[in-house]
Structure prediction request, 262 residues.
Amino acid sequence: MKWGTAYGAKDVNILYAMVARNLSGAFQLTCFTDDFTGIRPEVNCLPMPPLGCEIPADVPGKWPKVALWTKDLAGMTGVALFIDLDSVIVANIDAYFDYGNPNDVITARNWLNRLNKSAQTSVFRFPIGGHSYMLENLQADSAAVSRKFQYEQNYVTHNIRGGVKFWPEPWTRHFRVHCMGAWPLRYLRPPIIPKNAKIITFPGLPGPADAMLGRWTEKSEIRTPVEHLSWVWHQLTNGKKWVKQLSRYTQKTDWISKHWCE
Prediction:
């Protein structure tokens, strides 16, 4: 799904190329979007499915994704694998279609909230039309539901009938948690591809384009580990916020450009 300006046609085109390199046999990549401009012709572009309700402006999260649970998703049938546009596919993903029961809703694990066994919907598989109550329940009281759960993935975690299932742990990895590691490691080595990983997800910051270059955001300077620690020390001695800046550092990640490309 692509709406607004956070992602562009390039992101969709790269995702198509990554899927083509890492999935056996025929496939169809569908992009639900409010702007078809520049997207390669092999991608099946369709208008955003209607959410059918308003989400209060003070509620965070990617609530338009709940529209995917509609009973009629553009006439599609069968099982679909959803992949966020800021994901990097690093190995064959056939297993994502073979694993578990076709009726299961299978997601990545939210590695930042493991104690609650919550879902992370950067990469999830679902039977199209099989859980239409998810959209209907949101539409019935969108303000109360969205404020209660805050994030769409929390809503999915606690409301899928029968519960969500999780991919085998090595398959879907979180860039900051599993590739960068704890903050001291970020200064000692570049991010790695964890063993047996298939898809690397990038919730929050940095995104693939910035991590590839070794910066936290588009506006961040590219620094060596010593330079960044020196900069953090400067923030501390000048009474500025510095604690979060200590962990907001990544070295250049060369393997992203190998995989995240057309």
Observations:
- The CA atoms of residues 107 and 124 lie 4 Å apart.
